[in-house]
Amino acid sequence: MTRKVKKIPATLGQYSKTPLSQIKKKNVAGYARVSTDNKEQLSSYETQVNYYTKYINSKADWNFVKVYTDEGISGTSTKKREGFKSMVQDALEGKIDLIITKSVSRFARNTVDSLTTVRKLKEKGIEIYFEKENIWTLDSKGELLITIMSSLAQEESRSISENCTWGIRKKFEEGKVRMAFGNFLGYEKDKDGNIVIKEREAKIVKYIYTRFLHGLTPNLIAAELEAKKIPNVRGDVKWHGSTIKSMLQNEKYTGNAILQKTYSVDFLSKKRLKNNGEITKYYVENSHPAIISQAKFDLVQEEFEKRGAYPNRSTSANLFSNRIVCGNCGGLFGRKIWHSTDKYRRVVWQCNDKYKGEVKCNNVHLSEDEIYKSILEAINKIIVEKDEIIENCELILNKVLDTKKLKIKEAEQLKELNKISKQIEQLVEGNSTIINNPGAFNEDYNNLSAEYFVIQEKLEKTQTILADKYSRKIQIDRFLETLRAQDDLITELSPKLFTSIVDIIEVFSKKEIKIHFKNGEIVVVDLLRKKK
């Protein structure tokens, strides 16, 4: 019998799996390059052009744009590659959705140029397919490749700009602190070049820290400074909340300095990012005179963290703002003034959701005096039992919050990640220069990628636990420092004492008000019991 072959046309997009009748075809271009003018290479060049023309035209859901080419040109830089530059320009203008090329090394031997182009196109949603490595730049495998390429590009660019950066980093290693005095309130340089306190401005810095701990937001502090016509570092009276926030989070006011807080992402776009551990930081203690104590600075950072937990917080300047939580619905209590213009004027606190939404919160309101007395009672109970509480806190610090094992675990995970990164780097580089089995390469790459992401997830969990323990340790240290200094019962509530040891006030009813302290202690106050 004669064999018959019937052709069944494709009905689904190869990659989108969407019916061809319903999808917009991708505009696809090829890129081919050879490095020399000899006949053997030119033959390879013609083969590539013919191959990509046929390959792209064979896909029903692709539109063939053209094959961009460069011949007899070195791949170490994109500057002289007119075909390459034309292709990128057409892609950025929306003429190309996908670029097919032989390999990473054919695209660009210079990692910096290659990475720059990949990122520029990726931002516009344009994908590159490296056929030999089977890598699509918009999928997770492509993300990992870009990460590895970033590492290579950073080293490459660092060697190019080494003469510029070496001097700066040498100063960092020696602990030499630089300040932009023209934009930094509180300090100036003396005739010998030393950093010294500018007393008039230092008073403003101290005022800002104190007002924040009294409950004011950065925007309110800015408005208050403007109302008082207090000049800023430039001598005018215009203040911004963002400036105040930056001052409140700048460790240099404690006389210490963290150097290299930001870094250039890849020496390509010159974009700077916050340094979260990507490169070395230097912490210089006692580098210059302090305006703010370390204890006060830490309290301010804790307060920022607390306020950040409640994004819909009140902007009231009152000490209790953002501290009173509804035990029934979890919302915040807000400060209200009743009868503001007559003799029956009262200041009360009630749940902000009491009259909001379909389901109203039915929790009670409290007078400011009732809240004040509840806190005094709870703090005095803590002071009475302070010896036992201090002993428990020290036990928690030594046992529960010890981070030695976690730090060792973190170091091991980081080491393992670096090891896998190098293996992936070597695999990609090796596959770009030697003819290899594509299936074997793909399997090895996928296995290493999977292992990388598993360890990365474990590292993130370890670092989260470490950060949580460190945060709790700071809170308990501050709590203990304040409690040890408090020998007598109190009759008045100072802002410093309150912010140092009280976490939140949780209101369920007048019979059940829970005062949460920063060491984890909870004291329940019953206001109705007092009235009986």
Q: Mean pLDDT, as a whole number?
A: 78
- The counted number of beta strands is 18
Q: Which percent range describes the beta-strand content?
A: 15-25%
Total domain count: 3
The portion of residues assigned to helices is 40-55%
The chain-level structural class is alpha/beta
- How is the largest sheet built, in terms of strand order? 2-1-3-4-5
Distance between the termini: 107 Å
Coarse shape: elongated
How many helices in DSSP terms?
16
Rg computed from alpha carbons, rounded to a whole number of angstroms: 32 Å
**Biggest sheet statistics:** 5 strands, mixed
Q: What low-confidence regions span 5 or more consecutive residues with pLDDT below 50?
A: 74-78, 160-168, 311-317
Outline the structure in words.
The chain contains 16 helices and 18 strands. It is α/β, with parallel strands linked by helices. It has three domains: 26-138, Rossmann fold, CATH 3.40.50; 175-255 and 290-308, Putative Large Serine Recombinase, Chain B, Domain 2 (Hect, E3 ligase catalytic domain fold, Alpha-Beta Complex), CATH 3.90.1750.20; 317-532, no CATH class. It has a five-stranded mixed beta sheet with strand order 2-1-3-4-5, with helices on both faces. Helix 4 crosses helix 5, helix 8 crosses helix 9 and helix 13 runs antiparallel to helix 14. The longest helix is centred in the last third of the chain and has 47 residues, at 438-484. The model is unreliable at 74-78, 160-168 and 311-317 (pLDDT under 50).
